[in-house]
Amino acid sequence: MQHFINEKENMVTDAIDGTIAASGGKLTRLDGYPHIRVVVRSDWDKSKVALVSGGGSGHEPAHAGFVGKGMLTAAVCGDVFASPSVDAVLAGILAVTGPAGCLLIVKNYTGDRLNFGLAAERARAFGHKVSMVIVDDDVALPHLPQARGVAGTLFVHKISGAMAENGANLEACTLAAERVIKSTRTIGMSLDTCTVPGSLKEDRIPHGMAELGLGIHGEAGVEQIASNGAADAIAKMAEKLIDGMPKTPHVALINNLGAASCLEMSILTNSLLNSDLGRYIRHVVGPDAMMTALDMHGFSISLLELANGDEAHLAQAVEASAWPGINAVSQPSILPLPDGLSPIRAPASAHEATKAFLTSCCQVLIDSEADLNTLDAKSGDGDTGSTLAGASRALIGAMDTLPLADHTQLYRAIGLELSQTMGGSSGVLLAIFFAAAGDASSSGLAMSDALRKGLDRMRVIGGANPGDRTMVDALLPALDALNTSMAAAATAARKGADYTATLTSAKAGRASYINAEQLEGHIDPGAEAVARLFEHLAA
Questions:
Q1: Using one digit for the tens of pLDDT, what is the confidence trace for 102-160?
Q2: In terms of domains, do 158 and 285 share one?
Q3: What pTM value is reported for the model?
Q4: CATH, residue 510
Q5: How many domains does one find in the chain?
Q6: Domain limits for position 449
Q7: Would you place residue 1 in the very low, low, confident or very high pLDDT band (cuts 50, 70, 90)?
Q8: In terms of Cα–Cα distance, which of 199, 184, 339 is closest to 253?
Q9: Are residues 262 and 128 in the same domain?
Q10: Is residue 451 part of a domain?
Q11: Is residue 333 in a domain?
Q12: pLDDT, the chain, mean
């Protein structure tokens, strides 16, 4: 089983029950499981216009997560990616509709249109005032006769919900919903399709490609394009969104389709605000998972042209758990570093031979990035290569600011640079290593002895010793052999690195959390980096 579910048949009811149980009493449901699955506001008294939406499940937190004061009155939940029945929709309408009437907010899919539409007709036959709007915000396929309804639906929920909460009548709420629909544009992109529990996954998006404009049920998009990072993805989406878009202030809803990490979503948000579209975006909703497609590794952007009153309605407080709120886009004010953290650097000095030497060492680590990451993935978190390569690139970039002609000051300057640019424990340990080597060099010790003093300090503070399966296993024998020759140092470093592959327990670093089976046969990535560095110097 590739999902954390119980019986496939009970997925939706289990999810609804979990949502209600965690709502703090704000939500309840109608009787009628399993065929009628309707989540309702617990405090609803039918005194205002009711808002009902819903559709297939699998888009959580939509739609039950948006039930609450200020947004939806009820959500009608179908099976995964399947419209709820007419009876289920009708039950939801009848349960919440009072004299003020009911607004149905429906995404533009055939099943939803038919089932919600017939339920509305039957509710009217009971004497209820019911209006229905169809959301068709997807701009991915401009020639499609019936554009799909996707995450822009949430703008309709929020603005109409705020109006209803403030006492607007059914006609006003309906007109506002229709205006918001006409003013909203959405497009999505994904690196992968979604996995429906109990069904085979359609692997139609090749590795290294992304699909532009796919739907929230995994439907094919307009085209597959090379995946070239966040900024490129945003640029491709902006081309579709900006075509015919009024060049006026907008609010952007940045929606995680299910499996994009928070880190990716923040990067995409930054790319969006720095894109050609960014100049028109005044407010943002998200980034957050609001209308997902199960585990789809993608995101969508919805843009709403702001009209008078929209900002206030979008900002109005709600009791719906999934609404992330709206924030104005602003430029951050950068605070200066506290006293004592602004580095005091030795004056820069040129020395071409030293510059070439350091650059070549850095290039070895940059070239080894992928290999070291692969090694680290077997015994750690898979980032040793990236950490060392990133620090190396930063050091190359800072080369002309270093005291290259004064080796004592150079050790200290390298330590300072690493402490600022190299993350994790490795950055701290190597900063200690070079700072201590600089101290030793200032007392007149030769290079090999100064570096050995640096290693001694690093071992005392870091706690790593030979046999602990760290870079020390390669660095210590290499420095011991350095007075003999660089070739001897390289041989000793390689022997020490290879030795770590025989060690089935680590006493320091991330590998100390890994079991013996995962460690055996794999060289420690830090030791491998040291060995490659000395082999390069001996070549």
A1: 999 999 999 999 999 999 999 999 999 999 999 999 999 877 778 999 999 999 999 99
A2: no
A3: 0.78
A4: 1.25.40.340
A5: 3
A6: 352-538
A7: low
A8: 184
A9: no
A10: yes
A11: no
A12: 91
- Residue percentage of the chain with pLDDT more than 70: 95
Q: What was the pLDDT predicted at 224?
A: 93
Q: Pull the structure tokens for residue 49.
A: 């216009």
Domain shared by 176 and 224, yes or no: no
Distances (CA, A) of 305 to 55, 242, 253, 281, 302: 26, 12, 12, 9, 10
Q: CA distances (Å), 82 to each of 54, 76, 247, 385, in order? A: 10, 11, 37, 45
- Round to whole Å and give the CA distance between 358 and 531: 16
| Claim to verify: residue 52 and residue 117 sit in the same structural domain | yes
Judge if 356 and 273 occupy the same domain: no
Question: Residue 510 falls within a domain, yes or no?
Answer: yes
Specify whether 168 is located in the same domain as 278: no
225-247 pLDDT tens trace:
999 999 999 999 999 999 889 99
Give tens-digit pLDDT for 200-228: 888 889 999 999 998 899 888 889 999 99
| pLDDT tops 70 at residue 515 | no
What does the pLDDT average to over 176-199? Answer: 95
CA quadruple 162, 166, 169, 172: dihedral positive or negative?
negative
HSE value, Cβ hemisphere, 13 Å, CA-based, for 305: 16
For tokens 């296993």, the residue is: 473
Quote the tokens at residue 502. 């025989």
Is the same domain home to 408 and 396?
A: yes
Spatial distance between the Cα atoms of 85 and 76, rounded to a whole number of angstroms: 9
Strand, helix or coil for residue 506: coil
The answer to whether 39 and 96 have CB atoms below 8 angstroms apart is no
Beta bridge partners of 134: 106
**CA triple 63-238-302, angle to 5 deg:** 15
Can you give the CATH number for the domain in which 263 is found?
Answer: 3.30.1180.20
In this prediction, residues 487-499 reach a mean pLDDT of 93
Q: Which residues are catalytic?
A: 217
The answer as to whether 491 is a domain residue is yes
